[in-house]
Specification:
With about 250 residues, the protein is mostly helical. The chain is built from 12 helices and no strands. Helix 1 crosses helix 2 and helix 1 packs across helix 11.
Length: about 250
């Protein structure tokens, strides 16, 4: 689990796991859960007395990846504060003493400036009679959604114009526009810049002026939460149909 002492490394770590989920179409939480399980087992090997508080098994199967542009999950600290600490009618400083930390440190957790470690989770289990799975799942969902909202904030989008969907599209281009860009109100020009290219890159993909290779398929899968093979298969299918139509017309 991510600890207080390596907060910077922690954010880099869960960002990497979220990107891995986007690239493979599995969702970032699947990989974050696996990493958390490994860290939990390591923690319990050093602190076996906490086993009765920290029993947790992540879901065995991944959930289909969500696109980065989603609603932000409720902050973990807000849940702890509003649903548990305030209704208890116990002073905040007393809770800080119970969690073996200063009020400032506890406030940083509430504000989302620190991430819960397993020791803190074990104390939450004892204090509020909620299983470790509740707090770990809540934190992992929060970390993934935080990464997703940060991604969307970096790439402000404009409403999709009618001109953008009136191109002479290929089959791949139609699927890209109608099933992926249009629901996100994203223009091909904007999408081309989002992929790290020029405005014309998005138009070229839609019109079929460029072939979708492995590198482009990887970028599309990471941006849209699909798999690279999805786009490579579409490109190959279109190429075969074109080749077949040329041969038939020459007979």
């Amino acid at each position: 689990m991510i600890t207080f002492n390596n907060l910077k490394h922690a954010y880099q770590r869960y960002e990497f796991l979220c990107r891995l989920g986007e690239a493979l179409g599995t969702g970032g939480k699947f990989w974050l859960d696996l990493q958390t399980k490994e860290n939990l087992d390591l923690h319990l090997s050093k602190h076996p007395y906490q086993k009765k508080y920290l029993h947790w098994n992540p879901p065995k199967h991944f959930v289909k990846s969500e696109h980065p542009i989603i609603k932000f999950q409720q902050q973990l600290g807000v849940v702890i504060m509003e649903q548990y600490i305030k209704p208890s009618n116990i002073h905040f400083h007393h809770w800080a003493d119970f969690f073996c930390m200063g009020p400032d440190t506890l406030q940083r957790i509430i504000d989302g400036r620190r991430i819960m470690d397993f020791r803190f989770i074990s104390l939450l289990v004892k204090a509020f009679d909620k299983k470790a799975s509740y707090w770990i799942e809540l934190q992992n969902k929060y970390l993934v959604s935080k990464y997703q909202i940060e991604c969307s904030a970096k790439n402000q989008i404009k409403p999709l114009s009618r001109k953008a969907i009136n191109y002479k599209c290929t089959k791949l281009g139609k699927i890209l526009v109608m099933e992926h860009l249009k629901p996100l109100d994203l223009t091909p020009n904007r999408f081309g810049k989002y992929l790290g290219g020029s405005k014309s890159m998005g138009q070229s993909l839609v019109k079929g002026n460029v072939k979708v290779g492995v590198e482009t398929a990887m970028k599309l899968s990471q941006a849209l939460g699909t798999t690279p093979m999805y786009w490579l298969d579409l490109e190959m299918e279109e190429g075969l149909e074109k080749e077949f139509s040329i041969k038939n017309s020459s007979r």
